[in-house]
Each structure stands twice: as structure tokens, then as C-alpha cells.
Amino acid sequence: MIKNKGIFNNIYKNLVTPILKTDTGIDAEYLTNLSLSLLTFCSNNRNWPLVSRMIENLNQEFCVVDNRLHQKICGIDFFNPVGLAAGFDKNGDAANIWRDFGFGFAEIGTVTKFAQSGNPKPRLFRLAAEEAALNRMGFNNNGAENLVKNFLKQGVYLKKNRKNNCLGINFGKSKITKLSEATEDYLTSIKLLIPYCDYAAINVSSPNTEGLRKLQDPILLKELLREIKNLDNCPPLFVKIAPDLSFKDIDDICQLISDENIDGMIATNTSLDRLGLEQRKIKQTGLLLSEENGGLSGKPLQLKANQIIRHIHNIDKNINLIGVGGIDSPNSAWERICSGASLVQLYTGWVYKGPQLVPNILNGIIKQLNIHQLSNIKEAIGSNLEWIE
């Protein structure tokens, strides 16, 4: 198939990229919501002739097809290893369009049992020079019941009837729910959405819901995971962990994952560590980064997130890993895979680099497979192979 001439990437470079070069200007959350509104319209109306042609061009520009990128993990077909991370499409508003941006899968959410507005604004900040972001969104979403309605509205089929549209759903605890009642809160959301999710990500690591990270304690986490696993038709489960855990804490969770036959882990969420940027000032508030609440994402997290993936893979090579945090180039995606991640996810890097990042990564991986004479991406996982120009 002949690719088009990069019209959508050029639009992004000319209209959006200049905005992202400064911390101030158009509010980061407003810009995200505006972009998502446009994508939602297209996802809801993809059968309209004009929208259909646009999506076809989008697909031609960003989709890369190569059988060597395909993996079957936990019974799920991943046509390529690059996914959209949770947090961008919280309500599944554009669930029907992410595959046309070239993603092999998309993670919807975080969704909670109850609809909630999240933390007070402003709550999302660009750190343009560092290609990073600070967020304290607080699981703002319209609730699990609304997510079902959104899927139905877009014609998102039940997973058993769906092709080439792999969707994970990220589940969190509602803010108003006590920690002692967290299990029931998760169960309610997951029960509603089991028919639609290829896998469930259990988010116990966001820094923006008070007390949530306590659920990473092995005793509490074991109780939660056992109850979820007992659900009828339970999907594959991936536990999303924080980058701020000690290696000892990570080891304990890995042991739990193995003991309870949990399918995998997502490493990592955003960080409370300021990663050397403690004196960086947030211009909108006048405060230093060390004085601000919220999780740091983007390029500064790259090294730490990769170290955690490598550590987990070295502990237990049977744990399926999804690597996320600071991936912003073909090189960094290849490094994460060769450190032990079967799949990778993008968010902050995708925003700064633009939609061309997905095909760039996929083509970069294909080039490395050729150079290292590998027949499938699975052979690269945990191989520690270097990136070769």
C-alpha cells in the first residue's frame, strides 16, 4: 500500500508542536481535551463518507504491517508491540480510532466505579524543555457504566467479535471509596466491562488518589487480585506499579504475581521522585517542582523505568511486561524491549513527538530485527541487544 505524504503529521508539526515548545500558552489539559474531542467525533462517525476517507488516510500514514511484529500474549493477538498508555482516553471516547494511528493496542481509562471530577485545576503542566509533564488529575472520568455506553455508541464490538482493535482497560479505586472497601469497588467496574476488555490493568500506583499506593502492599494486593481472578470470564490481569518502589518491594510483588498466576505487570506509572528536577519552577504556579503534588512523566523517567523493567525480567522471565515511561524514540522502545518488555506504551512522548512516533518506532524495530537477523520480535525480548545504526 502506498503511503500518503504525511499530511496529518505535517498538520501536527505546524499547529501543535509550536504550542508544546513552551510551558505556558494554551493550557495542557485544554489542549488534550480539544484533541480528544476531534478524535471522538471521528470515532463516533467513522462511517460518514468524509470521515471515513480521512480515517483511511490516517491509517495509510501511520499503520505499519509486518508479521514479525505480531505476538500472542495471554491468548491475546497483539499485531504490533506499541500501545497507547492509559490516561489519554479515560472514557473510551475515541476507542474506535486508535488502531488507525498505528497502535497495536490501546489502554482505556483509568475508569472507576463512580464518576468523579478529579482534583482541582490546574492539574496538568508541560515541562517543555525536558519533554515531560506533571499531572495530578485524580482519575477524572465518567464512571464504568458510562464507559459501556461509550463503547456501544461507537459500535465497539464485544471482544469475542472484535478484530484488529485490541483494548485494555485500566481500573482504579474511586476517591470516595474507603481503602477497606476497595476490592468491591474494583470488582463492580470490572464486572461491567469484562465483555469489552482484552486485558484488565489493575492500577494501584497512581500518586493522585490518596491512599491508593497502599494497595501495592503484598497482603492487600493479594486479597484484591484473588477476588478479581474469581470473577467469571476474568480477563488477563496486569498490575500497574509505581516507579518509586524499592527493588525489595518490587521483588515482593513479583513473587505475588508468580504465586497467584497473574498474567503480567505494567511498569511504570508516573513518579513522585523529581528525578533531578527539584529546582525546576512551574511557571503557572510559581512553585518549584519539589513543592508541587503530582506524578512526573516523560523523558526524565526513561532511565528509571527501564531499570525497573530490566530488574523484573531478571527476577522472573515468565512475567509478561508492558514497559511505559519516557519512551519517545525507536531507540528507547527497542531498549525497553531488549530489557524485558514484551510490549511498550506511549503517552507523553507521543504528545511531544507527534503521531509519527508510532510508525517511526515500528519501522525502527523492523530495522533492528533485520540487522540482528531475528525472525520475530519475541526473540528480542530481554536479549540485551544493542541498538545498531
Explained architecture:
This protein is α/β, with parallel strands linked by helices and 389 residues long. It has a single domain, classed as Aldolase class I (TIM Barrel, Alpha-Beta Barrel). 34% of the residues lie in helices and 15% in strands. The chain has an eight-stranded parallel beta barrel, surrounded by four helices. A three-stranded antiparallel sheet has the order 5-6-13, with no helix packed on it. The protein starts with 6 loop residues before the first helix and ends in an 18-residue tail after the last helix. The mean pLDDT is 95.
Write the topology of this structure:
Blueprint: H1 7-16, H2 28-44, H3 49-62, E1 71-73, E2 76-78, E3 82-84, E4 105-111, E5 124-127, E6 132-135, H4 144-154, E7 167-171, H5 182-193, E8 199-203, H6 218-229, E9 237-241, H7 247-259, E10 264-267, E11 281-282, E12 287-288, E13 295-298, H8 302-315, E14 320-324, H9 330-339, E15 343-346, H10 348-353, H11 357-371
Parallel strand pairs: 3-4, 3-15, 4-7, 7-8, 8-9, 9-10, 10-14, 14-15
Antiparallel strand pairs: 1-2, 5-6, 6-13, 11-12
